[in-house]
Amino acid sequence: MKDVRIASVTACIMLVLLFVGSTILSQQSVAVEREGMLHVTFLDVGQGDATLIVSPTGTQVLIDGGRDGRVVGALQKEIGFFDTDIDMVVATHPDADHIGGLIDIFKKYTVHTILLTENINDTPVSDVFQKAVETEGATIRYARAGQIYDLGDGVMGTTTLHILFPDRDPTNLESNMSSIVAQVQYGDIEYLLTGDSPIAIEQYMIGKLGSVLASEVLKLGHHGSKTSSSELFVRTVNPQYAIISAGKDNSYGHPHKEVTDRLRMLGIAQKSTIDEGTINSVSDGKTVWFE
């Protein structure tokens, strides 16, 4: 009987070791596949936003975290279970469907830099988020247009994160209007990430920045709502692909038909987390493709 028990325990230990070993090998394989390429992944977090940037040198930036803890599982599928470091977290604005999941990210991960704005919502989620930011121990920076964050050098040059908005203290702005707008650049490729910026901010940026907004990939503002993605703005950005981050059967009706019809009229390919789940894009600095 004792020999049977020993054999059973030994078998369990072997299974655990095999699982750990295969997990580590799987993570090493993911790291090798990512090497030398820019990966921008639009995580499926339901009705919310969460975008993971992994530069060719492995720098990891998470922009927003959705509404709840499901972002942790979505992130683990991309960077592996044992990777618990994130170089930068960006909270575009303090609405629950953008910052709620970041509270769980701070519990699970060591975050080195947090980029946010001075805009704060008077809500329980915003209060908990602010406390989590303060206790994380990360370097805290406030976004301003003109900031450029170096994400490391690749074959096609440096990967950078450019902050395009806000260009002022947004404390007293409505939360969506305070959204951080960022552009990721690698080689000849740009991704424009707009948070929930409404049409008024789009028009302002067109006047200030014009052709600088041009990008191959546009994450549509406000989950494809008709309050964002005006025709003039989309024409100015002139993307090949438009990404919609929204939840299936959401109560807001996102994405709105006006927006999806506009994209079709302009000949822009649409990709939605509603239809595809997590959306993985890859760039070598010359072109963009989806896995």
Task: Report on the architecture of this protein.
- By secondary structure, the chain is an alpha/beta fold.
- It has 2 domains: 34 residues; 256 residues, Metallo-beta-lactamase, Chain A (4-Layer Sandwich).
- The protein has 8 helices and 15 strands.
- The strands form 2 sheets. Strands 6-5-4-3-2-1-14-15 form an 8-stranded mixed β-sheet, covered by helices on one side.
- Helix 3 packs parallel to helix 4.
- About 5% of the residues have low confidence.
Quick structural summary:
The protein has 8 helices and 15 strands.
Q: Say what the CATH topology of the largest domain is.
A: Metallo-beta-lactamase, Chain A
Main sheet properties: 8 strands, mixed
The CATH class of the largest domain is identified as Alpha Beta
The class by helix and strand makeup works out as: alpha/beta
β content, as a range?
25-35%
What's the helix count?
A: 8
The portion of residues assigned to helices is 25-40%
Number of domains: 2
Uncertain residue ranges: 19-33
Tell me how many strands there are: 15
CATH arch. level architecture of the largest domain: 4-Layer Sandwich
Mean pLDDT metric: 91
How large, in whole angstroms, is the Cα Rg? Answer: 20 Å
